Amino acid sequence: TTPDEITKAIKDLQSRGASYFILDFRNNGGGLVDAGVNIANLFLGKGPIMEQQYRDQPVKTYQVEQPGLFAKISMVLLVNHGTASAAEIVAGALQAQKRALLIGTPTYGKDTIQLVYTLNDGSSLHVTAAHWWIPGIPEGSLEGKGLQPDIIVPDDAAHQAELRNAAIKSLIK
């Protein structure tokens, strides 16, 4: 439901006069690959979003099929070490296509897809089944290092005003 929720929120904010957007992906652990791809689609006009490969399978490329509803809005993304998985797919695709600046600290660096099996006792087994990457970002550079922000600002209470100011300056330049 996240792509629909984002669409509703942005349309509501636009109806109130908002024209610049700061998407806060800090501490967003991500989620399903399809949700990440669908969110990236909202903000991109064309091109590849990500590629993935399961063992002994061909590479699957996710492409923008038609320009997204918000492909022309002015935006930046806030990221930190807690930005992972599908959130990194969105951030990486927007950064690679020079669609949005990333501001903050390097992301987590999760470039794998896991299958999750719930066990009878309520615990779960996570099996890494595939690897993904963002075209335009060197393959293998994400794992363990994360996406590198365009503007680095420490992620702590002392730097919140600096983070906000960097985001605003990037939008209204």
Explain how this protein is built:
The chain has 173 residues and is of the alpha/beta class. Helices cover 28% and strands 26% of the residues. It has 4 helices and 8 strands, in the order αβαβββαββββα. The protein has helices spanning 2-15, 33-43, 86-96, 160-172; strands at 20-24, 48-54, 60-63, 74-79, 101-104, 112-118, 124-133, 151-152. The strands form 2 sheets. It has a 4-stranded parallel beta sheet. A 4-stranded antiparallel beta sheet has the order 3-2-7-6. Strand 2 (48-54) and strand 3 form a beta hairpin. Helix 2 packs parallel to helix 3. The N and C termini lie far apart (33 Å).
Tally of contiguous helical segments = 4
Q: Mean pLDDT, as a whole number? A: 93
Shape: globular
Percentage beta strand: 25-35%
Provide the gyration radius in Å. 16 Å
Residue stretches low in confidence (pLDDT < 50, at least 5 long) are none
Secondary structural class: alpha/beta
**Sequence of secondary-structure elements:** HEHEEEHEEEEH
Helix content bin: 25-40%
* Total beta-strand segments: 8
> What is the spatial order of strands in the main beta sheet?
1-4-5-8
Distance between the termini: 33 Å
Largest sheet: 4 strands, parallel
